Amino acid sequence: MLQSKIKTVVLAIAISVMAISLIAFPQESIDASTRGLNMWWEIVFPSLLPFFIVSEILIGFGVVRFIGVLLEPLMRPLFKVPGVGGFVLAMGMASGYPAGAKFTTRLRQEKQISRIEAERLVSFTNCSNPLFIFGAVSVGFFHNAKIGIILALAHYLGNITVGLIMRFYGRNEEPIENLKSKRKPSLKAAFSVLHQTRINEKRPIGKLVGDAVMSSIQTLLMIGGFIILFSVINKLLFHIGITEFIAKGLEIVLVLFHISPELSIPLFSGAFELTLGNQMTSQVDTVTLMEKVIVASAILAFCGFSVQAQVASILAQSDIRFKPFFFARIMHAFIAALYAFILWKLLYERISQYEQPSNAIPVFHLGEGSFYQQLLEFGPLITIGALILYIYLYVKENFTRSL
C-alpha cells in the first residue's frame, strides 16, 4: 500500500514538473516538438508504412505461416521460437523500430505463438534499419561511411546474441508441447498451411487491404506522438538541469570502461531519444573516434525510452509483458558496445590502413539523388496521401456501420 502511494506521489510530481517546464520554456518546447514532428513526417511515417501494410496482408494471406513452417528447424533450436520468428526478424531488420514489436504482437493476437515465445521474439527483433545506421548516423552525423559497417555489424550481431541468451528465458513457464516442433518441415506442409489460412480468412481482398492500411496508420500516428513527446521531454530535462545532474553519475560508469566522461551527456540524451544522442555523440571533438562509436553503438542498441514507450504501447494490445524486452535492451546495449570495440580493433583499423582512394559512392550517400535525400523530399507527400486515405477509409467504415 505504501509503495503504491509513493508511486502516485512520484508520478504526480513528475508530470507537474513537466507542465511547469512547458510553461517556463515555451520556445524550447516548440522547437523540440517541431524537430520530432519533422522526423516523423519526413522519415518515420513514409519508411515504415509500406512494411506495416505489407506485413498485415502477408499475415492475412497465410504467407507468414508458410514461411514459419519452412524456418521452424532454424528458429526453434537457436532461439526457441516458432519459424514465423524468422519473418519477424527479417522485417524488423529491414524496417526498423518498432516493427518487431508490431509484428510480434500481431502474431500473438493470431495465436501463432505463445506468450513466452512472443516475449523471447520481441527481445531481439526490434532493430535499427540499415538506412538509419548508414544514412543518418554514419554519413549524416559522423561523415564516415566506414563507421556504418562497424555499427551495423555490432548492432545485428548483438541482437542475435541477445536472442541466443533469451532462449533460456521462461523455460519453467513454457508448455511442454512448445518445446518441439509439431510438424516436419516440408514444402507440401507449408503450402497446406498457406492454403488453409487463406481459406479461413473470410474478409474479401478489399476489406483486408483496407484494414491493413487503417491498422498501420493508427500505429504510426501513435509512434509519432511518442516521438514528439520524448523529444520535448529530452529538451526540458536539459534546460532544467536534470541531464547535467544525472550525467555526473554516468561519468563514473564511463570511466570504469575507460571511456571519456565527456560522452556522459550525449549518452543520457540517447537514453531518451537515440537520434539526438547519436548526433550529440558525433559532435564531441575532444574524444577519440573509437570511443564515440562505442557509445553510439550502445545508444542504438538501447534504442531510447522514446522507442521503448512505443513498444510498450504496442505490446499492451496483447498479454506480452514489457519487462523482458526492457531487460534485453540493457543487455543489448552492453553487448553491442563490446562488439563495436572488438570490431574496431579487428576490422576498422585494417580497413583504414589498406584503404585505397576510390571514386565509388556509398549506397546510403546523402548526396543529390540518394535514396535518403529522396525520402526527405517525397516523405511528406507520402504522409499526406496516406493520412487522406486513412480519413476516407475511417469515414467510410463508420458511415457503413451507422447504416
Describe the structure.
The structure is a single chain. The protein has one domain. The protein contains 17 helices and no strands. The protein is globular and about 60 Å long. 42% of the residues are buried. Keywords: Membrane, Transmembrane, Transmembrane helix. This is Sporulation integral membrane protein YlbJ. It comes from Cytobacillus horneckiae. Pfam families: Gate.
What profile does the largest beta sheet have? Answer: none
Radius of gyration: 22 Å
Number of helices: 17
Shape field: globular
Q: Determine the N-to-C terminus distance.
A: 49 Å
Specify the helix fraction band. Answer: over 70%
How many strand units?
0
Helices and strands in order, then pairings?
Layout: H1 2-24, H2 26-61, H3 63-79, H4 84-95, H5 99-109, H6 115-124, H7 130-141, H8 145-166, H9 187-200, H10 205-239, H11 242-256, H12 264-272, H13 274-282, H14 289-302, H15 304-315, H16 323-354, H17 371-402
Helix pairs in contact: 2-5, 2-10, 2-17, 3-4, 3-9, 4-5, 5-6, 6-8, 6-16, 7-8, 8-14, 8-16, 10-15, 10-17, 11-12, 12-13, 13-14, 14-16
Concise account of the structure shown:
By secondary structure, the chain is mainly α.
Can you give keywords for this protein?
403 residues; single chain; 17 helices; mainly alpha
